Structures are given as C-alpha cells and as structure tokens.
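thought: fold this chain, then report.
action: predict
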Amino acid sequence: MTHPLSPCLWFDGQAKAAAAHYCAIFENSRIIAENPMVVIFELNGTRFMALNGGPQYKFSPANSYVVTCDTQEEIDHYWERLGEGGKYNACGWLDDQYGVSWQVVPSILAELMNDPEKAPKALDAMMQMSKFEINALLNA
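observation:
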C-alpha cells in the first residue's frame, strides 16, 4: 500500500492566512478542509497541512521548499509573491512573511552545475545573485 507523504507546517495562529496566501500564488491550488486547528491545502498537487500549534516552534532554513522554474517570468513571479513581507536571501533563497524558507531556482541550474566546464562559472555567477537571473547564468 502506498502512503503519501505531506509536510505539516506549524504556525502560531496563522494557518488559514498562510494557506490562503500560498494558494493565491501557486496555480492549481486549493484549500481542501479546515477547522480552527488545522488547514489542509494543496499546491500544484502537493498536499500540505497547516497547524495552528502555538508559539513554541519557529521555521528555519534547515527546512525549505524548492520551486523549480522554467522561465525568468516564473522566477520573477514566485520570487516577488513569496517574498512579499519577508526577507530575500542569497542564491535564490527567501523567507516568506510567515518565516517559511523557499528556494526559487531555474530548472537549467542542475544542467549547468553538472557540466564540468560550465559549473565553476555558473557557481561564481550564482553566488553573486539574490534572485536567480537565467540569462546571467547561461552567459557566465
């Protein structure tokens, strides 16, 4: 029997607001069920649970969610929308307004990093970026 895995995000009373925020950013997303303690929602087919667990635990970059983008327009969209009210970091990382860490990365990055000739230049370019710029990576 297959047992699907889904992350549980621990919030301090912001579970519904966070779920609604994420569903407004990602296409094909929806809130499935909710009660005062838990909100079940889906982002592009991945199910999440948002828990109003209280102030005991905080998010950290040790757990992040990767959004792989094919175009610069997609990177720009997710970077701006997820980063609203949060904090932008280096190399495609950001913390959203709820403290959840995200990585907004171009799909071409894996190919560049696996090419022995292109990888050092791509890595050098990447280390100078906050938001990824696909053309700058390709031209490095």
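thought: worth noting. Residues 1 and 35 are 28 Å apart (CA to CA).
final: tokens above.
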